[in-house]
Amino acid sequence: MNNEITVVNNSVSFIDSIDTSAVVSTMKKIATLQAVVQKTLKDGHDYGVIPGTSKPTMFKPGGEKICMMFGLTPHYDFMDKIENYKDGFFAYNVKCTLYKEDKAVSQGVGSCNNYEKNIGILIATQFQRE
Length: 130
Prior knowledge:
The protein has one domain (16-129). Helix content is 33%, strand content 32%. It contains 3 helices and 5 strands, in the order αββαβββα.
């Protein structure tokens, strides 16, 4: 078996094709956005660590503020839901689509049910804030 590497000349490398001024500009925009988010969002109201978890989570008020900053409007659709009052089981599968004017620009799906370990704590925490 031959383990030689053949180098092809006259090709443009990926690194050579990067517009470094565009990268620097993008990095500045990211830093500015992070500074605005850190200054605007409040720990314990807009985001926080949910008991039983280790990382901060964005709460609804924080998500709404970020949507306003970008001029985005969220639209929610229930993809599936179970509301069994007799057995006390509730489960939801929701799709969120973000719109900029009339154009959909992003979409995500989330699900939860009341048998999840931390859902009761999260709901109680959210009601305490409002």
